[in-house]
Write a structure and sequence with these properties.
Blueprint (H helix, E strand, L loop, with lengths): L4 H31 L16 H12 L8 H24 L8 H29 L15 E2 L2 E2 L1
Helix pairs in contact: 1-2, 1-3, 3-4
Length: 154
């Protein structure tokens, strides 16, 4: 008696995307904090991002308020793919009766999660590149400088 797998795909993707719009600014800050000093010995690099609140301010100063939503399109693609596929696969596993067996729920969840992560992985990579992209004065890590042309990332 559950919903059809296609409905689970749409609902899962939509829920992930709605959450993404709200959490993307923190993802930008997290990415910048994590990449700061990438592959360099401690104390040998400048630290433009010091803590979450200061990093929020640094992003806004360098990239404007819109900088907090850097990589949003790739984030939405990632969340839509990953969550939609996870819900879709799990729904199929339920319909096939896998979840009625001992350990079936865990196995179905693990497989659905793995497939969703695999499908969403390329979008996650581009999302991280875009979120790290900023002015050279506060850049962290390697700047990939992706651009969107005619709806395609380059």
């Amino acid at each position: 008696g559950g919903v059809p797998p296609a409905t689970d795909l749409v609902l899962g993707a939509t829920a992930g995307c709605l959450a993404c719009v709200l959490t993307n600014p923190l993802e930008v800050v997290k990415t910048r904090l994590q990449l700061q000093g990438e592959l360099q010995p401690p104390g040998t690099y400048p630290r433009p991002y010091r803590g979450v609140l200061r990093a929020l301010g640094a992003v806004c100063r360098a990239d404007g308020l819109r900088g907090l939503q850097k990589g949003l399109a790739a984030s939405l693609l990632y969340q839509g793919l990953m969550n939609g596929v996870r819900f879709y696969c799990y729904s199929h596993a339920e319909d096939a009766g896998w979840t009625r067996y001992p350990g079936g729920t865990v196995a179905a969840g693990a497989i659905a999660g793995a497939v969703g992560a695999f499908v969403g992985s390329p979008a996650y990579l581009v999302k991280t590149h875009l979120q790290a992209q900023t002015l050279s004065s506060v850049a962290v890590g390697h700047q990939h400088n992706h651009e969107v042309r005619d709806g395609v990332w380059e």
